[in-house]
Each structure stands twice: as C-alpha cells, then as structure tokens.
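Continuing the batch. This is chain 6 of the set; chains 1 through 5 are on the previous pages. Same settings as before, nothing changed between runs. Recording input and output for traceability.
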Amino acid sequence: MEQIGGLLIALIVTLLLGLIGFAAWRYWREQVNISPEDEELMREIAELNDRQANRISDQRLRSGIDPDEAWRIMVQRGQRTRRRSTTPPRRK
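Output for chain 6:
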C-alpha cells in the first residue's frame, strides 16, 4: 500500500510539472509570435526614435562640425520636415 501512495504522489508531481511546463511553453510562444502589423509598428517607432534622437557620432561631436557641414545638415532636416508636412496623415 505504501508503494502505491509513493507512486501516486510521483505521478501527481510529474503531471503538475508537465502542466506548468506546457503553460510556460504556450505563454512563451504567444510572446514570441509577432503579427506583421505589430512588427511594422515597432519599426515605425524605432524610426521615430532615430529621427528624434538627432544622433551624431561621438567622434563627430569631439572633432566639431565645420559651418558648411552644419548648414548642409540644417537644410536636409528642413527639407525632410517640409516633405513630411505635405503628406496627408495616416489613418489607423
């Protein structure tokens, strides 16, 4: 009788661990699967962050930017802003 009790406990523990593993696997699978719409949204957010950061490399910051280069960057950013404002806003 004692062997049956131990076997029953082992079976229940194995079953519980299997259920926990299955639930964790299903949760992980849901987290990993990204829809194409979500992927596009993440890409757009990353591009927005890059534009807002106005990133300049550390090397360029240390060396300084000559006035002609600064003027060219300012003109390019102004043209991008003008292009963006003329396009109709996206509808969601």
